[in-house]
Design goal:
By secondary structure, this protein is of the alpha+beta class. The chain has 2 domains: 89 residues; 233 residues, Bira Bifunctional Protein, Domain 2 (BirA Bifunctional Protein, domain 2, 2-Layer Sandwich), CATH 3.30.930.10. The chain has 11 helices and 10 strands. The protein has a 7-stranded mixed β-sheet with strand order 1-5-6-10-9-8-7, with helices on both faces. Strands 2-4-3 form a 3-stranded antiparallel β-sheet. Keywords: Aminoacyl-tRNA synthetase, ATP-binding, Coiled coil, Cytoplasm, Ligase, Magnesium, Metal-binding, Nucleotide-binding, Protein biosynthesis. It catalyses: tRNA(Phe) + L-phenylalanine + ATP = L-phenylalanyl-tRNA(Phe) + AMP + diphosphate + H(+). Its cofactor is Mg(2+).
């Protein structure tokens, strides 16, 4: 048995040394030291060994087992280190190589225009207010002097969710909500940017979903001349040039008197062109003095306070500023179009 154990020692040492992979080493560990391995198989013959030799054979067997385990562990460590070096070599990164330029997105042109508008009005002391896009009929219509069955409701074909809940058709409800939150305190000086929804057929100048920026000022002694001055200042800053403006009488249920604001054509400087239809003027927004009923719905005494409001469409402002002829370009996600606005 001693000879068999010594032969097994030599055979195992040679096989372990020749192993080239961790998988081979695992198989050798099972072959020599497993429950059905060769060392165990030899030791099963201990019953045939003379009693006085059994301690000697047992000690030798333990010595060989320990030697095998040590050799297996050392070989496993060597193979793991070699595998790691090979992997590191394979995955080596040449830090001197130029990096790959990752494509970067940019702000959508409509959002960029809204931010430009916000910056201008914030510079004039306005605050930005927001409100829900799913709105109640009261805030969207009634509080804005549009009671049930009012014919002016037909001007805004709406998406109703229930008889009393709808997708807002303008951002004017934010004005009423803000006045309520102020609880009669002045001044109120806000702009309200956001998405609005109307049941329009999509074409080159209309969309069922678009954006608005509306403004509201309420205080003592507010007049139409102040409205005209603020809008003129805004137009000149937004378009980056000196412009002529004019206010034309119009009608909006929530303002009285109501006007539309025209500016001298930014394309031809007022000389007349295709864009302004040879008139030299372009309409950019609606405005007016806040109707007394709207002030009262907001919690303000209309005999003590006055105010003005205005509203514009960022899509239209962007189309005029950048010479875009179709509103659908903003919503079709054409990268050829959007990439033109990376510098905004």
């Amino acid at each position: 048995m001693r000879d068999r154990l010594e032969a097994l020692r030599e055979e195992a040492a040679s096989s372990i040394q020749a192993a080239e992979s961790l998988e081979q080493l695992k198989e050798l560990r099972i072959k020599y030291l497993g429950k059905k391995g060769e060392l165990t198989s030899i030791l099963r013959g201990m019953k045939d060994v003379a009693p006085e030799e059994r301690p000697v054979i047992g000690g030798l067997a333990n010595e060989i087992r320990s030697a095998m385990e040590k050799q297996l562990d050392e070989k496993e460590s060597d193979l793991q280190e070699a595998a790691l070096k090979a992997r590191l070599k394979e995955e080596t990164i040449d830090v001197t190589l130029p990096g790959k330029q990752a494509p970067l997105g940019t702000i959508h042109p409509i959002q960029a225009v809204i931010e430009q508008i916000e910056d201008i009005f914030i510079g004039m002391g306005f605050e930005v207010a927001e409100g829900p896009e799913v709105e109640s009929d009261y805030y969207n219509f009634e509080a804005l002097n549009l009671p049930k069955e009012h014919p002016a409701r037909d001007m805004q074909d709406s998406f109703y969710i229930t008889p009393e809940i709808l997708l807002r058709t303008h951002t004017s409800p934010v004005q009423v909500r803000t006045m309520e939150a102020k609880e009669g305190q002045v001044p109120v000086k806000i702009i309200c940017p956001g998405k609005v929804y109307r049941r329009d057929d999509d074409d080159a100048t209309h969309s069922h979903q678009f954006t608005q920026v509306e403004g509201l000022v309420v205080d003592r002694g507010i007049s139409m001349s102040e409205l005209n001055g603020i809008l003129l200042s805004f137009a000149e800053q937004f378009f980056g040039m000196e412009l002529e403006t004019r206010l034309r009488p119009s009608y909006f249920p929530f303002t009285e008197p109501s006007v539309e604001m025209d500016i001298s054509c930014v394309m031809c400087g007022g000389k007349g062109c295709r864009v302004c239809k040879q008139t030299g003027w372009i309409e950019i927004l609606g405005a007016g003095m806040v109707h007394p009923r709207v002030l009262e719905h907001g919690g303000y005494n209309a005999e003590r306070y006055t105010g003005f409001a205005f509203g514009m469409g960022p899509e239209r402002m962007a189309m005029l500023k950048y010479g875009i002829d179709d509103i659908r370009h903003f919503y079709t996600n054409d990268l050829r179009f959007l990439r033109q606005f990376k510098t905004l």
